[in-house]
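Annex B, item 7. Sequence and structure tokens for protein A, then protein B.
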Amino acid sequence: MRLAIVDDESVYRNHLAELINTVYGTENVSCYLYADGSEVVKSFENGFGLDAVFLDIEMKDLDGMSAAKVIRKYSKDIPIIFLTSHTEMAMEGYEVDAFRFLSKPVNKEKLLETLNELEKKLKVEEKIILKKDGEEIVYGINDLLYVEAANNSVRFVFKRDAVEMRMKFTQALEMVDAISRDFCKCHRSYYVNLAHVKKLGTGDVAMDNGDVLPVARSSATEAKKMLFEYVRRAGR
């Protein structure tokens, strides 16, 4: 992640950078420090790519709220986390679609919560690369409905496409499991994406594209357990 930390007090911006680097390590995150709102605005004007901005509200030259309004002209989506010593000022942040507010000095536990939410928001969908008609094609793992064992090959079924590859079913499952934990083996020949399950019965499962797949009696209990866990986790 590329994070901007904007604060006119070096003690606060350096402290926040140290906390973030402690959590991620310098290999996984880059903190860019700015002493004023005008400095970070200039970065946006120059097209410098940032994933999120930690922005102090109270600064002498260009304050955080004013800087945020300019930033929004360049990006409507970038998460802005306001830093403030006066929580009553936080309400103004909703005008610029603030992502979070952190009180100064920043509490490490609150920062961790914010970083976890930030990761979820910034998470890029994982991809799976499959070979079709001699070409390697990239698919989003969320678009994969289910994997089906078919003789000596495997079918990867998507809403608007299907790819058949010569490989073992166990190899296909390993490929999927390396990317996502949202799949469940409901039958010896089927591995379904829980995000696309419309209805799960004792003998079959209805997918949201209309396909109805078999559920093995020995797998039914575990499949239901995994579906309930997925729903709880995903808030579906």
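Protein B:
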Amino acid sequence: MSTLRIAFLHLAPCPGDLTYNRQLIAHAVTTAAAHGAEWILTPELCVCGYDFLDTLGTAWIVPPPDAWMTSLCQRAAQLAVTIFLSHPEQDSTTGKYYNTLFVIASDGRILGTHRKIHTLSGAERWSSPGETAEPVLVPPVGQVGMLICADAYTTKIATHLKAQGAQLLVSAAAWGPGIHGPEGEWERCSLETGLPLLVCNRTGLDLKLGFIGAESVVVKDGQRLCTFTSPRSALGLIEWDLAMQTCGTREPQRVDL
């Protein structure tokens, strides 16, 4: 294998509507696989929306995998795809809740997780901060370091992941444009580590925040290789050169959902 087809699920989840969001994710995963995707990336908190707490609460968050995640693991195996799934979890020992990114392998196994370290006040008050960041072995790339949105605000976590052997960085994000939008954080993480960074962001409207115009990006050596935006749910497809660690186009293939 010389290239890897990667799908960025640039979704517009509905805050607090688990049924709608789960159907959207399942449809997007199936569509991405039908277009040849081998890796599928999701944005931060796509299953519940970012600002879900006041409408949905936390009683639905359980130790993983819940019934729906189990069904998605089965779908990953049926479609032979690897899914980076952003999904809240409850720790079975402490009972604490975490904003977590899971890696589901193409055989349906959960390969590893990353718990968001730089959690924010307000809408993320439900989430405890993660304590560690370690790469996960994900074929065919190798060691993959994971971030969630504000984990890229400084380069500290990315640098730690590089020191632990990460060969590629993947981030799930819910980082909208505007006054508090990204201002070069992804580029700095890539430049200081020397690692490519794949960021799957979201679109649409949340209860208090707007994500229309938010960007999913591929960054290498501090420069953006490609950028994908959409005012509504869509997916962007790229061909990732495994040897050169780069993508062949600045315009991902777009598929509306």
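Comment on protein B: Helices lie at 18-34, 53-56, 67-79, 156-163, 185-193.
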